[in-house]
Amino acid sequence: MVQDRQGYFWKEVPVTTGWRRCMKEAFEDVVRYSETHNVNNRIAAYMLAIDRVGLYHRQRGIYA
Q1: Closest by alpha carbon to 55, among 29, 34, 31?
Q2: Among 16, 33, 57, 60, which one has the highest count of C-beta atoms within 10 angstroms of its own C-beta?
Q3: 12-51 pLDDT per residue, tens
Q4: Within a 10 A sphere around the Cβ of 30, how many other Cβ atoms?
């Protein structure tokens, strides 16, 4: 969407490497969370998401 509206096209390699890094970090976060709380990865991902939403909501405040 950004590429189309701005007429700016990204190169494949930086997009792919950034995406892979992001996915790897997310996977590692979920696995670590599942081990810490002794739940499966699906539940850990859900719990982590809820924790992050709550954290960002507290950091930014209700009106941000």
Answers
A1: 29
A2: 33
A3: 898 899 999 999 999 999 999 999 999 999 999 999 999 9
A4: 19
